[in-house]
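User: Sorry, folds how?
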Amino acid sequence: MAVNTIFPTDYQLHLFHEGTLYESYRLFGAHVIKKDGKVYTRFCLWAPNAKFIRLVGNFNDWNGEGYPLHRVNNEGVWVILVEQNLEGALYKYEMITREGKKLLKSDPFSFYSELRPGTASIVYSMEGYKWNDQNWMQKKEKKNMLAEPMAIYEVHLGSWKKHKDGAFLSYRQLAAELIPYVVEHGFTHIELLPLIEHPLDASWGYQGTGYYSVTSRYGNPHDFMCFIDQCHQSGIGVILDWVPGHFCKDDHGLYRFDGSYLFDYKTTGDRENQVWGTANFDLGKNEVQSFLISNALFWMEYYHIDGFRLDAVANMIYWPNRDDKHENPFGIQFLQKLNQTVLQNDPQVLMMAEDSTDWPNVTAPVHYGGLGFNYKWNMGWMNDILSYMETSPESRTSVHGKMTFSLLYAFTENFVLPLSHDEVVHGKKSLLNKMPGDYWQKFAQLRLLLGYMIAHPGKKLLFMGAEIGQFDEWKDKEELDWNLLDYDMHQKINTFVKELLKVYKRSKPLYELDHIHNGFEWIDVNNHQQSIFSFIRKGFKEDEHLVVVCNFTEEIYQDYQIGVPKEGSYREIFNSDRDVFGGSDWINKKVLKTKNEEFHGKPHSIKMKISPFGLSILRPVKHRKERKGNGKEKVRSHAVSRREGKQASFLNREPS
């Protein structure tokens, strides 16, 4: 990591205290510096309430005598220059506060940390890794992400797979096993539960202490760079679950860092996060903004991270611990500043809000009054669809609206449809076990649920384990139940997921217009008596569309009539009830010819088989003359449509 000066410049310090030193990691933390033929290790931190600070570590037997830090400004920045290469050394800061209390703190800007239960920071150089992901980085720059397929595999590295003795796989071992698995199944991205250093395994990384330190549980920073590099070489993007709202209160961490509430709010009601037992960042403090925004840029620069899923955005938009929703202007302004800065640095970075509120324009640009994210998790869709699926099939007629409500707001934001880890823990049951009915019906309805998610507008996210049909909910201390793949129905649901994602990625109508209302049209939204839903998904090309039919009961139909927009014939390209998926094989093998009979408000109609708890996707058959007719004018029209689609992308689109 390049450091240009031995001591902080006045300009650097000014920017840090102003909240705009977006490369704070170049100044703060531990850096090995070569100057005039000598090698130094510089340590720099911010601790305005400290009266005295000493550097302690294994290089001085944890005795800070002779290692005092020097205060370089009134705002509390401290520095020590050690004429020694301390690469690999363990260290902490020993502080005496103004109140006379002695503290022993890890470095907030350390790039590597001691393996738990140790809590020391480690001097580590981020330089030296040779990246081989140039093709990925170049291709990413040219993509219009809103019009691309996105199927995210959400992973907790500590419990995806383990050694036989229960030990964690390393980053490099995960690269060898997880990446081929993700590629084989057809996912486009991996989303990793938080990997900032954290003391407690059971927190899953959401309660962190080392924001610049990738957790040492699975290896060192260069090992993690290797993991991401190999993801990119395999065509897989990497999204990091990131927690800029709150942090854990362990003694060695950020909490009461210099004896004062330095990183957190001073007022108890604003500071204490009663739900998680953590402390909320003071997002109105300039130095905290420099710390957090720099952190996002750090992960992008040194780890080539493709995006961030921001946890608990509601906790930043609104003040915590209050009965009524009371806006937090500091949180709102911070999110806008963060998103503007990150996307100015790289417009292709995915900034995803896990937001459970109805705050408007989360994915609208800041200059239009939005928060500036480019994606938002659709928590409403997730809650409604799972509630509907958990309802017994015979009672679904009474909750019909849960399935249709999401389409009333589906295009107000750029949504991701999440079936995440939060839905399969703490007694909520696995996705498979949420499904009512007998053994066969559970699998059939899980296939239907996953198929409906793929067909519904929005990008997709699935937590690990659903693709093998786990019966047990997620057990964070154990690996996935891989032995289930020895059983026929679990092997078949796994095959189903692979085939479903193949169809998704090769069917442009299922993703090109995900965030534009022109990409979706109901055929029949009102059939609550039979619980059958039918709709159309459209792509950029005017004549390119798919018809989707979903049956949420076990009833079957021989000649079910639906309206279609195009005369000719339709072919079933996917059916979740195929025998290879574990279904009854009640499918449409023959081409379905249209009748010149208006139905469902459409000029033509077809009659088809409807499978039990089945999803069917139909594509219009293009005859030779039609294919031949797609000449230069059609190609030009498609190019114009793509250009218009790009103009609807995050940075340029008007708020919905």
User: Anything to note?
Assistant: The longest strand covers residues 38-46.
